[in-house]
Every structure is written in structure tokens, then in C-alpha cells.
Amino acid sequence: MNLPVIIKFVIDLLAVLLLALGIKGLSKVKSARDANRLAAFAMSLSVVGLLSYYLGTSGIAIQSWIWIIIGSIIGSLFGAVLAKKVPMTSMPETVALFNGCGGMSSLLVALGVAIFPISSGQENFDFFKSLINEVSISVSIFVGAITFTGSIVAMAKLQGWLSTPGWTQSKVRHFVNIVFAIASLIAFFDLINGNTSSIWLLVIVSSLLGIGVTLPIGGADMPVVISLLNSYSGIAAAAAGFVVDSQLLIVAGAMVGAAGLILTQVMCKGMNRSLVSVLFGGSLSAQSTASSGSGEYTNITSCSVEECALTLEAANKVIIVPGYGLAVAQAQHTLREVTKKLEQNGIEVVYAIHPVAGRMPGHMNVLLAEADVPYEQLKEMDVVNPDFPATDVVLVLGANDVVNPQAKNDSSSPLYGMPVLDVQEARTVFVIKRGMSAGYSGIKNDLFDLPNTSMVFGDAKKVLNDLIGELKDLGVGEK
Amino acid sequence: MSFISLLWVLLLGSLLGLELIGKVPPTLHTPLMSGANAISGITMLAALTLIVKAEGNVPLLIIGSVSLGFALFNVVGGFFVTDRMLAMFSRKPSNKK
After folding, report:
1. Which residue among A221, A401, A410, A422 is the active-site one?
2. Sequence ranges of the domains in chain B
3. The NAD(P) transhydrogenase alpha subunit C-terminal domain covers which part of the protein (chain B) (predicted)?
4. Cβ pair B85:A91 closer than 8 A
């Protein structure tokens, strides 16, 4: 072993260690920010290690430097600008976009190696080795393409650019996706047989498969899809590691893959659905049409903002249940103003966070942190559920399925078995909602019919603004 | 590196990842995801390797450069956005009684 090899070995080892510590730290609130920086440092270290290795051995041609610099500057610049500019409310689609680009990178690396095989130094042709090479390239392309198109579709759906087309909810989609899957298998075997041109077939059909699998998935299932795609991007990186023979890529990719899987599992548990049913079951609405889930509301009580303010003023304990609607209305800051007023009046306020509220894992936590809500006030479902009977007022803001009592009471409901927040146990429930439209799942919410539930109709932000005015008139929060 | 030892690396890396994360508080679900996401941009090393070994093959240089761009977009954007989120979490609540 010569010096450059030793240096690279040491740097790689250090980078892996720091990345592992970074991931570990990211799962603790106290250390998370430093851990993120540590991971970023480890990544830059690994680049230095790789470049110094090539400088010390084969050298790097000027031409290569030029292309390295072009690619780095453009990529980093766009990444940094987007990361700085993007509003916190569009975090789910931003994460999806970043994720897709990681997949695209793996895809391109594999494609490059496949079209123009790099001289690896070993001249003697080894059948076993070339087989492994073909397999790694195929896997890298397959997973990379699915990650890319899947993430882009997820992003487009989250942005509202793309709705769920009707045909994707019928059985046709299974047929279509199976055709894509078989076609990619054929392309894969053809590629191993030495037919290089079938690589394009693989690229196309795996891209289509990514679209076909993600398109039918409903918005409420988005947290699962996003974390699963995140896991895929790790697998794609690991596969690229096999292509270019890099242990560092394999370890880092495997760790990301594992992290994504854990999150996916947490999300599935939060909905009491299996991964298989999320991926192949389509959106819940398709299942609900036939069941007793749909029905007419018989006992809706609607009330004015003023009544709501009066009830809030008299309360001792208030629980806020935020959902995706709060993010859409961008009402987190207004909500914070309301709760500040209540707190100044000595009213205890906590936020009940359902594990799958919003469109990505932890969506509500990010949203409320942006509005300066101390995270001690955010309570997990299991912690907060026993508190509802002792709660005076619950404010449901843009959440729907996660507060549907059907999930507990009605075994014929498609939601049955999903863990929900027991808001109906509280004395009074206010649901702030634009209209009587059903939730994302399209299922009737029995909560709205209960006698202790009142609907406050209107856009969340406007209602909350009015609420601030009413509270002011009542003298709440004035010292 | 032989294929078999690379498989070992894969296996141990996965186990390490599962072991390291274990239980994550919900507050950190998004940052963990976007942080891990940034790490998956480690494919930038593969892209760099491609460019260095291209030996003047222009199409390959371009593919490598585009791949590097995508990876760095993922890495830089991912880490920045995660830091922005975590900065919000660590912010001291101003109105604590």
C-alpha cells in the first residue's frame, strides 16, 4: 500500500464514523443541529479524501477539473438558493425534490459506467465480476429511476400541480404496473446477456414504474411515500457504491436506507395500514364509496367566531389539533397569536400531534416550530389522549381523518383501526373548516354530528384573525 | 474489494443504520428525513470518480458533471434546509412565563 491509498483509507474510515455519529445525533433533539453539521462536514471530508487520492495516484486532468467545477457550482448554487428561499410550508415538496435529485444522480452514474465502461486497471476478463457489475448497474438504474420519477410525481402532487387521475384508482393500474415491472425484468436479463442497448429500455420502464406506483397514492398516505422514497434514495446510493467499488457509498447508502425504513414503519403504524396496502391499495376514498363510510350529516351545529371566543375565554385547558389544512392556509403564525393570548390569560394550551398529520413525517412539528411554538407544548397522540376528558375546548384546525371517531367505533369504516385523537371526549369541540367537504379520505366524519361539536365555517387564517379580534374585545390577553 | 466483502459492508451498514436510529421523537421526523436525504447525495463521490476516470471522453464528462450537479443540489440543499429547521427548534421561546 502506498501513501495515497492509506490516506484515503483513513479519511474514508473517519468519514463513515462521523456520518454514523451524525445520523445518531439527528435522532436526539439536543444534538440534532450539531449532528447535521457534523454529517455535512463528513461529506466534505469524503470529497477531499477522494480528490486527494486521485491527485496522489493518477492525477486529475484539467478537463476533469473544469467539469467538476461546473457541476459543483451549478448544483450547490441551486441547492443553497432553494434551501434558503423556500417557505417552511412547502417543506414536503422540497424534501421530495431533493430526494429525487439524489436518485437521478445514482441513475446517471450507472448509466455513464454502462455506456462507457471505465478502465478498472484489471485487464483480465472475469465472467463473475462482469456479471456483478451488470447487476449493480441495473439495480442502480432501476432504483435511481424509481426514486427520481416517484419523487417528482410526489412533489407535483404536493404542489397541487397534479391530481390523482381517476383511472389510477381502478384495477387497471395493477395491470399497467405489472407490465412495467416485467418489462424492466426483461431489460435487466437482456442487459446481462450483453445487449447494452437494452439499458435504455430499463431506464424508460423503471421511470414509468416510478410514476405508475406513486400516482395512485392519496395525499393522506404521502408521509409513507415520502419516507419510503427517502429510503430508496439510500438504496440507490448503495447500488452506485457497488458500481464504482466504494465502501463509503455503500455504508452511507445503507444507513440512509435503514433510516428511511424506520420512518416508513413509524408512519404506517400511525395509520394502522401495512406498507403493502399503502402501495397497492390506492387511496382510501376508493375503498370507502362502497362502505357505510359515506352518508349524510344529520346534526350539524355551526357557530359564530364570537361564540367560539366566549367559550375559549371561559376555558382552563385548550388542546389544538392541527392538520394539513393549517399548512395550506399558512395560518400557523395567526394560530400562535391566538394561543399567546389564551396563555396570557392563564389558560393551559397544548398541541396534539397525530403521527401522520400533514403530508410528511413530522410536518406539524416543523410548521409550529416556525411559528415559535415551544416544542414542549407539542404532545404526541399517546401522551395527549388521556387528557381529552379533562379538556374544556378542543380546536380542530384543518385536520379531519385523524379525529374521526369512526376509526374506533365503526368496524365497517375504512378508517377502522387507525389510531385517532379522542377529541370527542372533551367538553366542547370546535372544528374550523372551510365547508362540509369530506376529508382527504372522502369519509364522513362522525365527529361533526356529535352534540358537543360546533363547526366554525371559514378559511382557517381568516377565522383565527377574527378570533384574535373577538378575544381582544373580551379583554383576553391584555394585562 | 471483492464482491463478497462489499456485501458484508452493505449488511453491516444497514444494521448500523437501524441500530443508530432506533426511536426518534416526532419533532425530529422531518429533520432526520431531510438530513438522511442529504447524506444519500454521497453519490457525488461516484460522479467525481466518473469525471476523473473519463480520460477526455466528453459525453462521459458531461454525464458525470450533470450527475455531480444533481448530487450536490441534494447535498447542499438538504443540509441547509435541515439546518434551517433545526434552528427553529432550538430557538428559545421568547414568551416563556
Report:
1. A401
2. 26-86
3. 7-91
4. yes
